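Worked example

This section walks through a single chain of length 207. The input is the sequence exactly as stored; nothing has been trimmed or padded.
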Amino acid sequence: MNLLTLDHLALSCETLAEGTEHVADMLGVALSPGGEHAAMGTHNSLLSLGPSEYFEVISINPDAKEPDRPRWFNIDNFSGAPRLTNWIVQTPDLDAALAQLPDGFGTPMSLERGDLRWRMAVPDSGVLPFGGWAPALIEWQNDLHPAPRLPDRGIRLTALRLCHPDAEEIATLLAPLMPRDTALFEPTETPQLRARFATPTGEVVLT
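Given that input, the structure is written out below as tokens.
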């Protein structure tokens, strides 16, 4: 059994409206309202990528109370145009997964939104390993998951590529824990996530 499987992708933005419009324009479909994360002071909109994966647009919620800790995904320090910043992998046993990974992936937090319940490893600094480009780890509770609840707009992730100076080291660390081809790891000078999607009108790449 694979300990880690792809759960969702996250695109960060300065405002949720800007990020949502960007993704809708690129993929040619409407996104669904998500909700608020009170513990982190963020909010999101969502898009189905099939029965078990989804796409998240996330930003700081200007109307939320300021958290007493750094927000996840290093979003406190985000600026510029909307862009892919994070990939999130699901595990049936968060504690076991963290035990097989080096320090820095975070401390488990219990979170909720509506009837959704999950545990997520969040670094104290808000920054994941490898400068923030390592995946975040999530463990869903009570068998509920956002993906099957979202309208299916016919969007499917066909390839995920992590471009990074330490791509080979990241692959050595993570590949044994994930299904083959969950992500492609490409050594590059500048870190970047690249996701290729099949859409009703053709192939689209988001970065």
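What to look for: The longest strand covers residues 156-164.
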